[in-house]
Amino acid sequence: MIKINNSAMKSYTRFFRVLSDPTRLGIVLLLAKGELCVCQIEAALKVHQAKISRHLAYLRKHGIVKVRSEWKWKHYSLFKPRDKFERSILRCLQECLANDALFKSYFTQMEECVSQPLDRVVKIARKL
After folding, report:
1. What CATH architecture does domain 6-126 belong to?
2. What is the DSSP letter of 79?
3. Integer CA distances (angstroms), 80 to 114, 116, 123, in order
4. What is the per-residue pLDDT across 60-105, written as a single tens digit (0 to 9) for each?
């Protein structure tokens, strides 16, 4: 019989719970490519700012993302994975979902947003 550390099991289930929401999963996969402003995430996922902010707060609470403020912009990035388990799961998700049509569209929209000034991205995002 395999004995699993109860603390580790709680950590694993918490990590999967955090990733179980489609919006949070999309955010994490976008941030795996690098730091993004909230408006860039909003435009890439085509989701309203209030919903994005709520999910980012949840991800911050669980130690998945960190925020950096620069003037009026909030830039989010992923914390380094805490252990081999988190690192492996994130790498697996990136590889497995790289050819998924929905996530491809997220990455395409994100690349378009990153190439534009943030003021223009905000205008795009507000049209959602």
Report:
1. Orthogonal Bundle (1.10)
2. P
3. 22, 27, 31
4. 999 999 999 988 888 999 998 888 988 999 999 888 888 888 888 8
